[in-house]
Amino acid sequence: MTSSSNGIWLRRETSPTEERTVLVPADAAALIAEGVRVTVEEADNRVFAIEEYAAAGATIVPGDTWPDAPAGEVILGLKEPSGHVQPLTHRHIFFGHAYKGQDGGPALLRRFVEGGGELYDLEYLTHEDGRRVVAFGFWAGYVGAALAALHHRGQLKAPLTSMTRAELDAQLRAAKDDAKALVIGALGRSGRGAVEALEVAGIPTTKWDIEETRNLDQAAILAHDILVNTVFADAPGTPFLTAADLPRADRVLATVSDVTCDVTSNANRLPVNDAVTDWASPSRRLHDEPVLDVIAVDNLPSLLPRESSTDFSAGLLPHLRTWSHNGAVWTRALEHFDRAKSSL
């Protein structure tokens, strides 16, 4: 590493289907106007062109050069950075997915232990009451429910491609059916997005949240055509669907959208689903007769990359402004990291 500074370094994402960013050009310009140094890596798949960041005043560098960034730079991204065995020496901001027993979590944390870096996990930027300050949840729920509706109608085309909300809504409005949907976690960000998408699709929707799942009505779940799971759970609980439910002749449920995608966590409320799906094959068959298919794409908001990135960046911007002052949300995020690291 070279000499220290206190800038923000936006790295490229390595996944070929990840078009989102956590900092859009307009918000980068706002930080630069306030005296913050912003460096942006070139990225072929980012929905915003690198020329937009250059016009905003950012310093442009080649992709994957963040390991050589000055020691004081905070490396900003969305998912885990490239170089899966490389020790992490900087302070990093991204979604680590490492605190709930997920596959790969311990390996990621060991990269920080070996390098002496720190993780400020975007999922754990919270207010004092534990509510997240910023999330992609609304768009995850929106897209997850939209894909479920299209799949149930036999209209989901693979491979998936990114689009605008207007284009997705046009597909949802193009056909109607008599399906009934259930959204679990309906009062949360993802749940609200799911409900809104189903409204656009014209599908009657039952909305469950904490009260409705306290004493789970399994028969009611199975009586819906579509289930959208948007529950954020950090501890085990009663599953919404079990292996015993799959062969039941009275099961109406035919399409599950697992927006949460905690498939490798012991907090998974859909243990019948143990794998994510992807853009090439967004659904997979869980049972043949009666049919049950699951959609478990783990980067749903990237299908609407411009809308989801713009919303997320707007929510993150006020907290990036407090970064150099050790704002409370950053302190709390670091406490989560320290606890997880100490448990290795």
Task: Summarize the SSE layout with pairings.
Layout: E1 8-10, H1 25-33, E2 38-41, H2 50-56, E3 59-61, E4 74-76, E5 91-94, H3 105-115, E6 118-121, H4 137-152, H5 165-173, E7 181-184, H6 189-201, E8 205-208, H7 210-214, H8 218-222, E9 226-229, E10 255-258, E11 283-287, E12 292-295, H9 305-320, H10 328-342
Parallel strand pairs: 1-2, 1-4, 2-3, 4-5, 5-6, 7-8, 7-9, 9-10, 10-12
Antiparallel strand pairs: 11-12
Helix pairs in contact: 1-2, 4-6, 5-6
Biggest sheet character: 6 strands, parallel
Compressed to H and E, one letter per element, the order equals EHEHEEEHEHHEHEHHEEEEHH
The helix-and-strand class reads alpha/beta
Q: For the residues shown, what is the average pLDDT?
A: 93
Strand content: 5-15%
Helix content: 25-40%
Total beta-strand segments: 12
**Class of the largest domain, according to the CATH hierarchy?**
Alpha Beta
Under CATH, the topology of the largest domain can be stated as Rossmann fold
Unreliable residue stretches: none
For the structure shown, list the relevant keywords.
Rossmann fold; 12 strands; 6-stranded mixed sheet; 2 domains; 6-stranded parallel sheet; 10 helices; 31% helix; single chain; 344 residues; alpha/beta; 13% strand
